[in-house]
Amino acid sequence: MNQKSLIIVSLFTLAVTLSSCELAKGIFKAGMWTAVIIIVAVVALILFLVGKAKK
Q: I want to staple 53 with a disulfide (CB 3.0 to 4.6 A). Which of 1, 3, 14, 30 is the partner?
Protein backbone atom coordinates (compact mmCIF):
# COMPACT_ATOMS: atom_id res chain seq x y z
CA MET A 1 0.00 0.00 0.00
CA ASN A 2 1.54 3.29 -1.00
CA GLN A 3 1.67 6.43 1.15
CA LYS A 4 -1.28 8.24 -0.48
CA SER A 5 -3.54 5.23 -0.09
CA LEU A 6 -2.59 4.92 3.57
CA ILE A 7 -3.40 8.59 4.22
CA ILE A 8 -6.74 8.36 2.44
CA VAL A 9 -7.71 5.18 4.29
CA SER A 10 -6.70 6.74 7.62
CA LEU A 11 -8.72 9.92 7.03
CA PHE A 12 -11.74 7.91 5.87
CA THR A 13 -11.54 5.71 8.97
CA LEU A 14 -11.43 8.76 11.24
CA ALA A 15 -14.38 10.36 9.44
CA VAL A 16 -16.48 7.21 9.76
CA THR A 17 -15.65 6.36 13.36
CA LEU A 18 -16.04 9.83 14.86
CA SER A 19 -19.53 11.22 14.57
CA SER A 20 -19.85 14.99 14.78
CA CYS A 21 -21.88 14.80 18.00
CA GLU A 22 -19.24 12.74 19.78
CA LEU A 23 -16.52 15.04 18.56
CA ALA A 24 -18.36 18.20 19.69
CA LYS A 25 -19.14 16.63 23.07
CA GLY A 26 -15.48 15.76 23.58
CA ILE A 27 -14.29 19.21 22.54
CA PHE A 28 -16.60 21.05 24.93
CA LYS A 29 -15.84 18.64 27.74
CA ALA A 30 -12.07 19.04 27.39
CA GLY A 31 -12.24 22.81 27.18
CA MET A 32 -11.94 25.30 24.37
CA TRP A 33 -8.20 25.94 24.52
CA THR A 34 -7.34 22.28 24.70
CA ALA A 35 -9.52 21.71 21.65
CA VAL A 36 -7.85 24.56 19.76
CA ILE A 37 -4.39 23.15 20.49
CA ILE A 38 -5.46 19.65 19.43
CA ILE A 39 -7.09 20.89 16.22
CA VAL A 40 -4.02 22.92 15.26
CA ALA A 41 -1.78 19.93 15.96
CA VAL A 42 -3.95 17.59 13.88
CA VAL A 43 -4.11 20.03 10.94
CA ALA A 44 -0.34 20.51 11.10
CA LEU A 45 0.17 16.74 11.14
CA ILE A 46 -2.13 16.25 8.15
CA LEU A 47 -0.38 19.01 6.18
CA PHE A 48 3.00 17.49 7.07
CA LEU A 49 1.90 14.04 5.89
CA VAL A 50 0.42 15.39 2.67
CA GLY A 51 3.63 17.32 2.03
CA LYS A 52 5.69 14.18 2.62
CA ALA A 53 3.41 12.15 0.31
CA LYS A 54 3.83 14.65 -2.55
CA LYS A 55 7.63 14.37 -2.50
A: 3
- Minimal CA–CA distance to 2: which of 46, 52, 53, 44? 53
So where are the chain's domains? 3-54
Task: Please give the model's pTM, rounded to 2 decimal places.
Answer: 0.45
Q: Helices (DSSP H) in 1-55: which residue ranges?
A: 3-17, 20-30, 32-54
From the list 36, 16, 35, the residue with the least C-alpha distance to 27 is 35
Mean pLDDT (whole number) for 44-55:
88
User: By the 8 A CB rule, do 51 and 9 touch?
Assistant: no
Helix axes 32-54, 3-17, angle to 10 degrees: 150
